[in-house]
Design brief:
Length: 177
């Protein structure tokens, strides 16, 4: 489909393909896609027509719902990784504390010391779990920012639509005079 200015508007989104994976390619692709929609596929000097705005409004909801779904999935993934990390950490802490059960309580290591022993003795596993947790948290926060940006885009589309309708009314009033 081509608009009246001969430019192609953004195609309809296949959310299953675009909003699937947490990686650099995913976020770069999503950023490009959202930018393409937000610019309505036009240069900054162009003024979008009502047709262009309607097309953008039509495509708004599927992207918003897909982003919302992905935020929910990211939140669940983050929560699961957080639980896995906490369970692993507490299991190791219990084992470390058990080593000192025969010692006098005054010689038991503090919680901070136990955590330091945990990290020292399990560097690789600690790093793997902690990095996975932080990546998951970062992905969730990034998706939340995309949602905020997309919601702001809806407001812009609403204002653009009202402006175009108002300009059309003014033009028709001038023509009828």
């Amino acid at each position: 489909m081509t608009t009246r200015r001969g430019q192609t508007p953004p195609e309809t989104v296949n959310t299953d393909e675009v909003l699937y994976k947490f990686d650099e390619e995913f976020f770069n692709g999503l950023a490009t896609l959202l930018y393409k929609y937000k610019t309505l596929g036009f240069k900054a000097v162009d003024s979008p027509s009502l047709e262009d705005i309607n097309e953008a409004l039509f495509n708004y909801a599927p992207v918003y719902y897909a982003l919302s779904k992905r935020v929910a999935e990211a939140r669940l993934e983050f929560t699961n990784k957080e639980i896995d990390f906490d369970c692993w950490k507490s299991s190791i802490c219990v084992d470390i504390k058990a080593r000192y059960k025969d010692e006098a309580k005054t010689k038991w290591p503090s919680i901070t010391e136990i955590e330091q022993i945990l990290i020292h003795e399990n560097k690789t596993e600690y790093r793997r779990l902690k990095v996975g947790l932080e990546e998951s948290k970062g992905a969730l926060e990034t998706l939340k920012e995309y949602i905020k940006s997309w919601q702001a885009y809806a407001n812009v589309l609403g204002y653009l639509s009202k402006n175009v309708v108002h300009e059309a009314r003014l033009a028709s009033d001038e023509f009828s005079l």
